[in-house]
Amino acid sequence: MEQYRERLKDKKRIVVKIGSSSLQHPETGDLDYIKLEVLVRELCNLKNQGKDVVLVTSGAIAQGKKVMHLREEDINEHNRIAIKQACAAIGQSRLMMTYERIFSEYNQVTAQILMTKNTIVDDLNRYNAHNTFSQLLQMGVIPVVNENDTVATYELEMDNDTLSAIVAALIDADLLILLSDIDGLYTDDPRKNPDAEFVEIVEELSDAYMDMGKGSTGSSVGTGGMNTKLTAAKIATKAGADMLIANSKDIRIIHRLMDGRNYGTLFVANKDEDFDLPGFVSRLKK
Q: What SS3 class is residue 215?
């Protein structure tokens, strides 16, 4: 296993995904500025090492709901999509403004990219998105990516775990890091089963591993559970990228992972030359 971890030091193009629950104070739902500042510093430090970096961030809808003082009881089946789309529009600009301010403290230029499922499924859209990412990375920019929830409907159901893997595949990244509120993959849900065993490395993503994610759910803030992370692992590894699931409790875990230290679960790349990204994405269902 050590040789796989050692290889992480040499990764050149890295996608980092952080979830809604990792960006907020659990007591209030407000943004955790200390976590955000550490996240940005870690990413800028990777950039300063000569690596290409992309951030996939959740949190727009949650921030919009917070700003508008909306509670779950204010949302029903009739108005759910409209309210979520409105909250995404409100929250996305505020979230991006916060990122922009912190990144600018490190003299780092960022760019906002909002994607939908159709960005990947449609050939021309995918081609244009690939070119945009490539140009931004060539210019030394750190793209900040989120789902375009404001104009989408079914995309509201596509989580950012999956989106980050799609981005990794689209830009030929060699590493995807999913930061979440769990340490990694377990043989069962550790919150329900005290006998669940931690899985340090997955060399081949078999059906047995995929089954470990079924029935798991994420936090009340985000949309992803272990199932979505394993779907992300399937996309990333087939596209030729290693993937890590690690706990975002301490964001500084990013540089520890990049140093090859033994944190989180490592999914080893198993590139499939016949992997059809648009076809896979078109078949995705919540």
A: coil
